[in-house]
Amino acid sequence: MKRTKVINLLQQRPGDEVLVKGWVRTKRGIKNVTFIALNDGSTINNIQIVCDTAVFDESLLKQITTGACIAVKGELAASLGSGQAVEIQARDIEVLGTADPDIYPLQKKGHSMEFLREIAHLRPRTNTFGAVLRIRHAMAFAIHKFFNDKGFVYLHTPIITSSDCEGAGEMFHVTTLPLENVPKNEDGSVNFEEDFFGRQTSLTVSGQLEGELGAMALGDIYTFGPTFRAENSNTPRHLAEFWMIEPEMAFYEIEDNMDLAEEFIKYLIRYALDNCKDDLNFLNNMIDKELISRLESVVNTKFVRLSYTEGIDILLKSGANFEFPVGWGIDLQSEHERYLVEKHFKKPVILTNYPKEIKAFYMKQNEDGKTVRAMDVLFPKIGEIIGGSQREESLEKLEQRIAELGMDHSNLWWYIDTRRFGTAPHSGFGLGFERLLLFVTGMANIRDVIPFPRTPKNAEF
Ligand code: ATP
Ligand code: MN
């Protein structure tokens, strides 16, 4: 007999003999009947198993405790109890795996998020993490669907790289050199020629540079993969390993880029509202009472578009008492971004034309000589969710900026070549997948929207 998933059983009409397999959430008994709530991860909802206590061995029923894995055959019957349409009248129960109640850490009562992080190997079995991980899957699927429907090509950019996209350092080195006896050059520096790749390599911080090469051949591409930042940012919005979606489009100006970013993010939120109802309702009840109304308001709102300079003016005139002082030229902190979004406009904001000093070398320079065509999308509760720009397509201006910043040309020759051969206006952006998930799930900490978070001093599991 084939196993049926709980999500399908709950929609099936009563009468059939069925087989279900899953993990016990709770067991309770009255008189001669035992009720088991069984969950198999296919939905947040459990199926109720009803056992006639007289029919089953006491020793078998004793093994059915929270966390145990069982297989149940029986008749799908109309449920007399409230809360579910159907239940299973058990005929045959097999215990696949016990879970000793004295040591199984996930008992019924609500556990703190901090505690659950310490048992990340088991937390997917909770309602909250089940919901988050199903939504995470749905969002990944929707991302591919959005771009596929628009004719974008999914380009796989390398994880191991010898270029530093942002020029900011903060990369994890990749090496096979022996740490206890590193080969040195005469001047004392590390001899990377003896390393695996014959040069210094790192984990990528962004697939953008290679993404641009793709766009200059295929037109519209996107990447969706893991990225790494060795920054010591212990915040609820930073991970050392996170996933990023980076579309890159030939012939897009900054306005087209903003249009796509807004359409994309609204599409994803709408997709979640339409396809993840049970999980969102659960999170709305248990985690964040304003979650669904916030999601609905964002899909129905036109994002504000505003220059960095106008944004700074608003902050200066706000009279608010910020921890980090405001002035033209500063890199906006989360508190500033959230002031604009949550207090001033009360809707998402796309901020453009940032000072070139605080943005990456590849951004298109404006006529004023001071600003670049950057665009950051700022969201309530999150701050920056997307960072993007129109790219500098002029060979001369790009090379000049690289020289100004004293960057190493030799690692970037292939990137610069795109401006030498058939250059074209183009733009792109990066959406942090976990920042999106923070917004869509209402979870407060980025460590709780990825199965196994990587943060400073934490790489367990
Ligand atoms: P922040 O100022 O918040 O650190 P950033 O300016 O470093 O962000 P970008 O380099 O523009 O971010 O990266 C693009 C997107 O990737 C960001 O808009 C954000 O959604 C996401 N992101 C960046 N750093 C992290 C991180 N450490 N953990 C999770 N997501 C991140
Ligand atoms: Mn950062």
Task: Describe the protein's topology.
Layout (H helix, E strand, L loop, with lengths): L5 H4 L7 E14 L2 E7 L7 E6 L5 H6 L5 E10 L7 E12 L15 H6 L8 H23 L3 E2 L5 E2 L11 E2 L26 E3 L4 H11 L1 E9 L12 E10 L3 H22 L1 H10 L4 H9 L4 E4 H10 L16 H12 L3 E7 L15 E9 L3 E8 L4 H10 L8 H8 L5 E7 H9 L20
Parallel strand pairs: 3-5, 6-10, 12-13
Antiparallel strand pairs: 1-2, 1-4, 2-3, 4-5, 7-9, 8-9, 10-11, 11-16, 13-14, 14-15, 15-16
Helix pairs in contact: 4-6, 4-7, 6-8
What does this structure look like?
It is a single chain. This protein has about 450 residues and is an alpha+beta fold. It has 13 helices and 16 strands. Strands 6-10-11-16-15-14-13-12 form an eight-stranded mixed sheet. It has a five-stranded mixed barrel with strand order 1-2-3-5-4. The chain has a three-stranded antiparallel sheet with strand order 7-9-8, with no helix packed on it. Helix 4 crosses helix 7. The chain is elongated, with a radius of gyration of 27 Å. It binds adenosine-5'-triphosphate and manganese (II) ion (MN). The site of adenosine-5'-triphosphate has 15 residues, from strand 11, strand 15, strand 16 and helix 13.
